């Protein structure tokens, strides 16, 4: 870690794991032979970007080409930004710690308008001029894609190229073109011109703008004279993948060190949506609906969780319930996940189509709550927005959910929709009340939680509501207050989104190049992470708007349908007039049927027989996207056939598994016969065997694992380790025992925790694991040779599965009754790298320092007692002399070595305190390493790793009897 440019101060920032890199399954390539070096600089925190499926898709897409590389960077939080600015250091990539300015292409995934200031943050900290026209030939090309690239004008001054649509078929060749031209020494202008002729690429520099009289917004009028001469298109057409199966979903991707928002192996199962909700931009810009081969989905899910070691996975789609084979797919997948003890999450369910069988399957893999989106509280409003859901659908699904023991329902709603009345707002709370009443009628033992989550409608480009006005802030606040009153009355959990953030989102969603100037002013004034409530400042944005002289009402008011719009030059592929007709139907309260389904149907047939019997034609909006309905029907038949074939294979596997389980049960039935346990277990205790077999916890074996903690792992805290190690065990094929209780967790016991940045040469953790049981080990009769052989096998498996920075040193299978770590560890040896010069100074002063008291000051915590209260941060003098057992300096090696007592007797000493007291200066924690943990052996202290089996004193038999049978059957003795 000394080589990492941030090593000196990583321990001073929140969550250092955001900036380290070096994760499991990351890809590093040398620069030799690469056509283009690309960095994906996601404009948000590591935890957000690493949860985004697009990051995984792009990382895999680019890196699977030998001549291309994709590295990652994420926006630094304010503490890291301050550290970088104070030291003049650049933002670097995670894989190779390369500054962003040294890449050929810097890419941004634009998911949300309020992340635009972070685009500028990443550019500036990466050493790249903010504005496109200020960049020279040596600067990287700045490329942006994602859903908001379909309305790109607010970022036109800062981004060189926008990729409109899906990247799979375009991005690799585009990167090669840019890389080749840069290596040839071609000018920046030539490179941008070549890229602008690529399908789906918009280069703002080659397009002219003017103010439209009707909308008063700046609109793109077409290519400039230079652009026409270069052959750039008048309108930029969206690109999309026709066949998703040509690009299988990635199953190997970097595993986050810092905990991601969605810490699981998610798999995209489809793109596009059949419903046509009029507020939904994604439902338009991801047309047509394309579904992945169900066999590929099952493989991606299982391979993903096994490669990563996650305990949870999820299926993602814009509308999971509308996937044509979702029922048989889940029924095929769930048994495989149950065998692996993996939880399954399902995103974007609808309030219909949740049949009993599907709900049972979901419940069986650990899901205790479900979320769906009625979107509006009255049927009139749902017809306006074209939400194909009725009150009966909502209440029927709620009843089925509650009957199956789910204890939480969350429902998403939108307020501020076109034509909305107060009755429609009240209907949101009324829908929640009716759902709660369903639970009350069932007379459940525990009342489920009903959560109503309400956001504001933001009219988005390329939707039927792109011309509609957004509610004013005062109107939205009144509606929120009304909902809060009703939620209290109806005992509902209410969550609302910030009205001011939504208002700003609207300004950028319908924004033009004037909003780009506002963006620059706000960023210069300190705007960052505007999607994070604690960072958003309305005053900062209103000041920037006033400085530029923009009238916000231009972007929030109703726009004439025949006015030109700032995003008209982006061609999504829709038939002219389609969106306007859907807008007019919305204002008349008329719904349109879901496309791609049999006419009049809400859900797809769930078997081939039902699909063949359904002769109804598939609905087509004729929106302009070329969908072949006959081909779509045929593909769904093929998918159902493949799932049927997989079902037969699964039944064969389950039959073989049942035979194996019958054999195990036969062994377990004769677990501990009296004649084999003579002298170890009283006959009166044999009844405990049946109780044990029925217990919630399986029989476990305790193993003690010694490991070194190096490299990036030095900056992983204790909570990070509790996530990383269970993943390692799952990859190794070793199952952990779990605690009892409402929220079971893997049973692990660590040695004393280390400060962030401190390395370790000999750490330890005790793990309770479930090993394949034989009749011998179930009876506690393993020999020493058996135990040694098992330990060696476990070590080999752990070494193969260990993440970077965890080096497995040794594994011991513990004997029954051995002391736990907390009873053994009494001291620790440390070393700190001072360098030869400082080491010589410390060596000269060390005898004098050790001859007197070693006092350090600690900041006190707020404590109250006996009428006294000490303020937070009040310094307290503490003498740590008694805790320091030994210290010496190795001048030639430049090391200070010392031993610290860790027992609870007397005041302890933190390693950094000892170093400060002995050295007289603060030394960065990353220069510290814990060399070993020590235990007492007679009168001596020895390395815990060198200590043999140590047992606690035996309790009187009367105290041991109730638990002895369980211990003999459930641990390795």
Automatic annotation (TrEMBL):
Spell out the Basic and acidic residues composition-biased ranges.
956-967
Which CDD domains does this one have? Answer: B12-binding_like, Radical_SAM
The highest taxon in the source lineage is Bacteria
Q: Where is the Radical SAM core domain?
A: 259-498
Leader sequence residues: none
User: Pfam families recorded for this chain?
Assistant: DUF2344, Radical_SAM, Radical_SAM_N2
Residue segments, region Disordered: 950-973
The family database entries (InterPro entries) matched by this protein are listed as:
CHP03960_rSAM, DUF2344, Elp3/MiaA/NifB-like_rSAM, Radical_SAM_N2, rSAM, rSAM_horseshoe, rSAM_sf
Q: PANTHER family annotated for this entry?
A: RADICAL SAM DOMAIN PROTEIN (PTHR42731:SF1), SLL1084 PROTEIN (PTHR42731)
| Record's protein name | TIGR03960 family B12-binding radical SAM protein
């Amino acid at each position: 870690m000394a080589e990492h440019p941030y090593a000196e101060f990583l321990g001073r920032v929140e969550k250092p794991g955001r900036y380290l890199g070096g994760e499991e399954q990351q890809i590093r390539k040398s620069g030799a032979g690469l056509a283009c070096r690309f960095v994906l600089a996601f404009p948000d925190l590591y935890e957000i970007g690493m949860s985004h499926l697009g990051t995984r898709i792009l990382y895999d897409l680019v890196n699977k080409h030998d001549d291309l590389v994709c590295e990652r960077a994420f926006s630094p939080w304010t503490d890291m930004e301050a550290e970088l600015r104070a030291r003049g250091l650049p933002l670097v990539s995670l894989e190779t710690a390369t500054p962003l300015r040294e890449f050929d292409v810097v890419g941004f995934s634009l998911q949300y308008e309020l992340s635009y200031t972070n685009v500028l943050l990443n550019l500036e900290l990466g050493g790249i001029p903010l504005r496109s026209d200020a960049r020279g030939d040596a600067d990287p090309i700045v490329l942006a894609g994602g859903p908001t690239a379909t309305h790109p004008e607010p970022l036109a001054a800062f981004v060189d190229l926008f990729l409109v649509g899906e990247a799979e078929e375009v991005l690799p060749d585009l990167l090669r073109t840019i890389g080749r031209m840069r290596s040839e020494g071609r000018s920046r202008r030539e490179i941008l011109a070549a890229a602008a002729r690529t399908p789906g690429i918009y280069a703002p520099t080659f397009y002219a703008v003017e103010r439209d009289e009707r909308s008063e917004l700046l609109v793109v009028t077409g290519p400039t004279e230079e652009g026409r001469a270069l052959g750039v298109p008048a309108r930029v057409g969206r690109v999309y993948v026709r066949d998703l199966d040509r690009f299988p979903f990635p199953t190997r991707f970097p595993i986050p060190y810092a905990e991601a928002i969605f810490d699981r192996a998610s798999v995209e199962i489809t793109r596009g949506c059949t419903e046509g909700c009029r507020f939904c931009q994604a439902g338009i810009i991801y047309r047509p609906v394309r579904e992945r081969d169900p066999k590929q989905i099952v493989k991606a899910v299982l391979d993903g969780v096994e490669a990563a070691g996650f305990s949870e996975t999820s299926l993602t789609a814009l509308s999971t319930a509308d996937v044509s084979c979702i029922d048989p797919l889940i029924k095929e997948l769930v048994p495989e996940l149950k065998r692996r003890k993996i939880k399954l999450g399902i995103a974007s369910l609808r309030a219909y189509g949740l049949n009993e069988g599907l709900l049972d399957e979901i419940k069986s893999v650990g899901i205790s709550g479900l979320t769906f989106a009625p979107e509006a509280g009255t049927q009139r409003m749902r017809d306006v927005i074209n939400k194909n859901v009725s009150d009966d659908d909502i209440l029927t699904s709620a009843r089925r959910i509650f009957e199956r023991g789910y204890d939480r329902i969350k429902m998403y709603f939108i307020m501020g929709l076109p034509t909305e009345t107060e009755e429609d707002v009240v209907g949101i709370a009324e829908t929640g009340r009716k759902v709660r009443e369903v639970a009350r009628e069932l007379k459940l033992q525990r009342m489920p939680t009903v959560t109503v989550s309400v956001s504001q409608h933001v009219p988005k480009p390329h939707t039927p509501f792109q011309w509609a006005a957004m509610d004013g802030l005062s109107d939205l606040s009144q509606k929120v207050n009304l909902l809060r009153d009703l939620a209290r009355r109806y005992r509902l959990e209410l969550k609302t989104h910030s009205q001011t953030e939504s208002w700003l989102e609207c300004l950028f969603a319908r924004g033009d190049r004037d909003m780009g100037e506002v963006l620059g002013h706000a960023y210069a004034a300190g705007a960052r992470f505007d999607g994070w409530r604690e960072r958003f400042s309305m005053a900062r944005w209103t000041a920037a708007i006033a400085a530029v002289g923009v009238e916000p009402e231009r972007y929030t008011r109703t726009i004439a349908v025949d006015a030109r719009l700032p995003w008209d030059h982006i061609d999504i592929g829709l038939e002219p007039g389609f969106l306007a007709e859907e807008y007019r139907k919305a204002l008349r309260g008329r719904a349109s049927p879901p496309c791609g389904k049999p006419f009049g149907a809400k859900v797809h047939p769930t078997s081939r027989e039902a699909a063949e019997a359904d002769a109804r034609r598939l609905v087509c909006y004729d929106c302009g996207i070329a969908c072949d309905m006959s081909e779509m029907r045929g593909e769904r038949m093929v998918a159902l056939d493949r799932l049927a074939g997989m079902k037969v294979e699964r039944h064969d596997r389950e039959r073989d598994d049942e035979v194996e389980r019958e054999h195990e049960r036969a062994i377990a039935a004769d677990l501990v016969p009296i004649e084999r346990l003579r002298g170890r277990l009283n006959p009166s205790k044999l009844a405990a065997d049946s109780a044990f077999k029925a217990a919630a916890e399986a029989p476990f074996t305790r193993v003690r694992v010694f490991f070194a903690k190096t490299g990036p792992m030095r900056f992983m805290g204790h909570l990070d380790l509790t996530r990383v190690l269970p993943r390692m065990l799952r990859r190794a094929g070793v199952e952990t025992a779990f605690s009892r209780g409402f929220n079971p967790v893997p049973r692990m016991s660590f040695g004393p925790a280390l400060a962030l940045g401190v390395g370790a040469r000999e750490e330890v953790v005790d793990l309770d694991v479930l090993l394949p049981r034989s009749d011998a080990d179930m009876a506690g009769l393993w020999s020493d040779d058996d135990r040694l052989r098992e330990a060696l096998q476990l070590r080999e498996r752990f070494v193969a599965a260990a993440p970077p920075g965890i080096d497995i040193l040794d594994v011991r299978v513990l004997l029954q009754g051995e002391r736990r770590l907390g009873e053994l560890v009494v001291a620790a040896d440390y070393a700190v790298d001072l360098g030869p010069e400082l080491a010589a100074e410390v060596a000269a002063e060390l005898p004098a320092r050790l001859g007197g008291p070693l006092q350090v000051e600690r900041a006190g915590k707020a404590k109250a007692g006996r009428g006294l209260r000490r303020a937070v941060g009040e310094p307290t003098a503490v003498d740590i002399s008694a805790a320091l057992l030994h210290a010496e300096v190795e001048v030639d090696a430049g090391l200070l070595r010392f031993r610290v007592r860790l027992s609870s007797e007397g005041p302890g000493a933190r390693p950094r305190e000892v170093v400060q007291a002995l050295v007289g200066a603060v030394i960065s924690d990353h220069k510290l390493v814990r060399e070993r943990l020590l235990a007492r052996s007679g009168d001596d202290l020895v390395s815990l790793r060198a200590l043999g089996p140590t047992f606690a004193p035996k309790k009187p038999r009367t105290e041991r009897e109730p638990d002895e049978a369980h211990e003999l059957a459930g641990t390795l003795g």
